[in-house]
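Justification of computing resources. Each target in the renewal requires a structure prediction run like the one illustrated here; the chain below, 383 residues long, is used simply to show the kind of job we budget for.
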Amino acid sequence: MDARDAWRRAGEGFSGSFGGRPAGVWWAPGRVNLIGEHTDYQEGLCLPMAINRHVVVAVRPRSDRLVRAVSSSRGPAPDVDLDALRPGPRDSWFNYVVGVLAVLAPSAGCDLFIDADLPVGAGLSSSAALEMAVAVAINDLFALGRTPEDLALAGQRAEHDFAGVSSGLMDQLASVFGRPGHALLLDTRTRAVTPVPWRPEDAGLALAVVDTRAEHRVVGGGYEARVREVRAAAAALGVPALRDVAPEDLTRLEGQPLLLCRARHVVSENARVRTVVDAASRGDWERVGQALLASHRSLAEDYEVSHPALDAVVDRAARTPGALGARLTGAGFGGSAIVLLRADAVGMLEEGLHEEFARRGWVPCGVQTFCPGDGAARVAEAV
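Resulting structure tokens:
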């Protein structure tokens, strides 16, 4: 949706839920991670870009300590008091909202209406977009003076303390620092954010995002297991994080094959981020595509976070003329894959994927192309 649609939809939803008008409308984008997967919780490198799909929040402050929230897709949340914020049911979307409020500690309560054109469970970081939309709104409304980095950290704390996800900081940083025409090289150790030109369209290429409709889940399960495994690998190697490990150091894990595989992915993935940044800056898109394929192999074989539908997308892309590379994006276990290919081959890829998914009896996938977009911000009121 554009800014006009965002204001109209959120404003109407707010009025229908609470009466009157909101004090303002804010939005935050989802992200596509180009490369650098499962590195951020080991202080590594990643290369996401914000996209033009958003979570939108219409907000009005209150004179008391009450927080009321309604989601356009999931209905109302239980009313809560600012002085009694605590995690709700483990899978509740409201945990991300109350977690951010708990960290930012506004002086009064508020009414929030939440809308989105960003799909949930597609690996495009709808949870971080929700956190950042709420964070920028509360920061502005209550004049808290927090920096974008502060807001990103607030979102991460909400994930850890309220949603029960031991996430890194990539998604939140990408959502607040998004920049048109650029990906973002994130150093999650130093929190440095470096814009990197990302314009494959100048070479007649496009980045297709394929939503497999196989919903991924990052609360508990495989994601938390991977966090524990790489922490164990770092401890076995005597380093604070796998960011500090060179490829030759991995031989010390040869007696622990599971930890070796997990660590090998993180170490090699950090190297692939540097490769893609260098190749994209020189317009060497063939090399970028090769790195994407290598990343997917590593995620599927060493990190074991792929899914049959994600593998099917990558396999079909390899058989599509004009495709340079593909890989899963996001945490894996379902969700989305990205394909770098000639713009005139997107239709051919989509047709082939629809045939493949139908043959396997799967729900049809969705294919869209995205360019980098702006970060979280207040939405100008439509006139």
